[in-house]
Amino acid sequence: MSNNIESVLQEDRVFKPTEAFKKQANITEEKYQQLKKKASEDYEGFWSDLAKEKLSWSKDFTVGLDDSNPPFYKWFSDGELNASYNCIDRHLAEKEDKLAIIFEADDGSVEQYTYKDLHDEVCRLANALTAQGVEKGDRVVIYMPMIPQAVFAMQACARIGAIHSIVFGGFSAEALRDRIEDAGAKMVITANAGRRGGKSVPLKGAVDEALEKGGDSVRKVIVYKRTDDDVKMKDDRDISWHDAVAGMSNYHDAVMVNAEHPLFLLYTSGSTGKPKGIQHSTGGYLLNAHLTNEWVFDLKDSDVFWCTADVGWITGHTYVAYGPLSMGMTMLMFEGVPTYPDAGRFWQICQDHGVTVFYTAPTAIRALMKFGDDLPKQYDLSKLRLLGTVGEPINPEAWMWYHEVIGRGECPIMDTWWQTETGAHMIAPIPGVTDLKPGSCTKPLPGIDAHIVDEEGKELTHGEGGYLVIRKPWPSMVRTIWGDDERFVDTYFAMFKNKYYVVGDSAHLDTDGNFWIMGRIDDVLNVSGHRLGTMEIESALVSHEKVAEAAVVGKPHDVKGESVFAFVVLNQEIPEGDARLALVQELRNHVAKEIGPIAKPDDIRFGSNLPKTRSGKIMRRLLRSIAKGEEITSDTSTLEDPSILDQFMQPNK
Ligand code: 6R9
């Protein structure tokens, strides 16, 4: 991460919106000033007016913000609506035949769904879920590949008021079980397998494994048949998607829920071992999902929007499953990987489907950049008009490549800072208004009250790095950690006694008021834009029979941003030669089994003890230096046993 910080500090290029873009922009300078003025003069009225204008309510709300019990804020809390109705039904009168979803499968085959098709699919499934005993407020875990049925499942849950909780298809049976149990899920919706890079990726087997040793709350498992792979079906528990929807009506009256009714849970990593079930509301979440697609992505009826994120992450919720549909737009979904059959796949898809707005992660940009400029140049990318990035700071080099090679030097780059907890973009450019600087996510959106403060909570001005915080509650903010209000308060609000929502990132401001995100300040790694708790990986390592103790740090990585680097103390002698290499492999696979392949350490080093201070604190700073291959120049005299550093510096061979 430090490379990023150094290079962003020197960055002074400015890219102004072009006249052509300004002319057609959803948000003009004038409109932007009006929004900002309204937000500063009448904060509650600002959000309430937008909620009335942008969303369809079955019962109007009379209260905007309820802040009677901070930090448990409520928005529009006497109003009623349904998220799926807002994403589908309200568009039907005018847009029945408009494409809602264009899907390109791993093998290149294409499916298209109009808003009417989407309606029918979602209604049939909603009726099936009800027939299988799912009721309003029940939790449904969705463990699916990146196929339209994943969105149908989310929308069907929303339609009946069930709370979905997606578990990324790359997570292991163990991780799946933890999440099922924490949520107390009544149903799991899965597929026999998915397809990625020409290979079949099994899913149903992991569900079976997860439910073998727990997950007792689960009554039914619905299995979508995506591939030809056969799977075992458990008689009284499993039902095929095909059978479940057979004979179901394509009519379903969406269940209207209170604006505060939880729309979904999404588990994310924090500084402690156990993932947190981030709970989002229906009304507030949908409002910011809708608005940011309109403001930041400038979406219009003529656009084809492609967000490459998997629905297993928050980005796939807000910018695949809900936001674009709430706006009645056409969005693209892709099942496969960026490098199959070759590294031109993204550009081929943009060309073939006339993608106009494209949103991906810096890690993908860096990976594709390595293949050179010739590959993207083979494709016609002239329809692209706006590009976005999310997940981690983007280094200026990658920003410039994205802008020049993919965006012909014309497409503005939206570097969007936000989190699972914030629900939608928070600090991001408005494309017809904001001057861009490569590496900066620029300024808070209208209504977002972001600041940088020091340890005492004093606001910092430009130059100094500090804690990124949000002062005023906003509609799409996390409502609580599922089942753990206390952890919610401790994690996000305790540090400054409820005065701010504490983000967990450090940042600094430049003289133009632009925000530069520096990285996580807690023990959370950002590997290819995915959040991984160091504690989670440490717990996974320690659960191996040969491991006594483990410490995990992040190491800067060209493509992934950070990679996982583990220091391990064994409860047996450190093996040598091939036996050591075999153990490294065994431990890496063990982490993949406990969490998922994304958490596999790239490097594992062994020592007879971890470097600790005399008071027993692991000196992670030293471990980070070793991971980076830096010479240790700092004083190590407070270490209990300085000689162990030498052990950890030895690569395995
Ligand atoms: C949306 C998402 C959130 C963390 C966040 C920060 C990092 C995300 C960023 C960024 C710099 C950006 N992050 N976007 N850092 N610039 N544009 O990624 O959610 O998975 O919860 O991760 O990702 O560290 O705190 P999530």
Automatic annotation (TrEMBL):
Keyword Isomerase attributed: no
Residues holding ATP: G391, E392, P393, D415, T416, W417, W418, Q419, T420, D505, R520, R531
Catalyzed reactions: acetate + ATP + CoA = acetyl-CoA + AMP + diphosphate
GO MF annotations, alphabetized: acetate-CoA ligase activity; AMP binding; ATP binding; metal ion binding
Domain AMP-dependent synthetase/ligase: 89-474
Domain Acetyl-coenzyme A synthetase N-terminal stretches: 32-87
One GO BP: acetyl-CoA biosynthetic process from acetate
List of residues that carry N6-acetyllysine: K617
EC numbers for this chain: 6.2.1.1
Post-translational modification: Acetylated. Deacetylation by the SIR2-homolog deacetylase activates the enzyme.
Keyword Hydrolase listed: no
Record function comment: Catalyzes the conversion of acetate into acetyl-CoA (AcCoA), an essential intermediate at the junction of anabolic and catabolic pathways. AcsA undergoes a two-step reaction. In the first half reaction, AcsA combines acetate with ATP to form acetyl-adenylate (AcAMP) intermediate. In the second half reaction, it can then transfer the acetyl group from AcAMP to the sulfhydryl group of CoA, forming the product AcCoA.
UniProt similarity note: Belongs to the ATP-dependent AMP-binding enzyme family.
Name under which the protein is recorded: Acetyl-coenzyme A synthetase
Gene designation: acsA
